[in-house]
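Hi V.,

Quick status before I head out on leave. The structure for the redesign project is tokenized and pasted below; the design run finished overnight.
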């Protein structure tokens, strides 16, 4: 057994799951292109992190024409790119909530030794299916209820009430993206936070983010961990 094998087995998973709205409206104003770019950068940054304390894993569930595991939960250093997202269809957010609850409750995919998962919801519209029941199951289930939930409201037509209810971190209220640039900046801030958490002596600490819509891409985003 090599030292690399020992480190890989010793590190606990730190799951990050993105729930991405890919409905037809995301095709407008460069939103889906910005999301593709942001996810690519997130994967690259996660893959570069060490794995002494925590192994960052990334999963992507998309909801539009269908709800699907666009990227099954995978250690970031093993991800060889993400198939680009296309925007079409309605906004079946409730079905996406049910899918992420199933994932979080599956001990074969997310073992009990894993650190607290981070679930990121982003949407630019209103749910087109029943989401109240699925959300209640997500918020009350044994393991899924312990995940840190963040949400990003994109544009002026997003359902802010639903997105605000989804977020459960008092240090991270509902975030807003006014344009495509803000989507990239939000993902950059979350990426920095998760990477810092993975290096922390206490990776289960809540994610705390300082994010300001309208910042230039090159501006330093403040982080409080």
């Amino acid at each position: 057994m090599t030292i690399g094998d020992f480190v890989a087995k010793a590190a606990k998973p730190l799951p990050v799951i993105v729930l991405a709205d890919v409905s037809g409206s995301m095709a407008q104003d460069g939103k889906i292109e910005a999301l593709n770019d942001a996810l690519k950068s997130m994967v690259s940054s996660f893959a570069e992190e060490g794995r002494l304390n925590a192994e960052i894993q990334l999963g992507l569930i998309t909801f539009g024409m269908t709800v699907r595991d666009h990227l099954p939960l995978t250690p970031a250093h093993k991800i060889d790119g993400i198939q680009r997202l296309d925007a079409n269809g309605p906004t079946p957010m409730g079905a996406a909530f049910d899918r992420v609850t199933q994932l979080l409750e599956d001990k074969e995919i997310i073992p009990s030794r894993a650190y607290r998962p981070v679930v990121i919801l982003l949407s630019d519209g209103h749910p087109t299916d029943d989401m109240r029941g699925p959300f209640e199951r997500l918020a009350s289930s044994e393991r899924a209820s312990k995940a840190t939930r963040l949400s990003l409201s994109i544009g002026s037509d997003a359902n802010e009430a639903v997105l605000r209810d989804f977020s459960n971190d008092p240090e991270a209220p509902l975030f807003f993206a006014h344009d495509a640039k803000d989507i990239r900046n939000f993902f950059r801030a979350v990426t920095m936070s998760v990477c810092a958490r993975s290096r922390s002596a206490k990776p289960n600490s809540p994610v705390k983010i300082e994010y300001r819509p309208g910042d230039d891409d090159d501006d330093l985003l403040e982080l409080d961990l």
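Above is the designed sequence. The radius of gyration is 16 Å.

G. will cover questions while I'm gone.

Best,
W.
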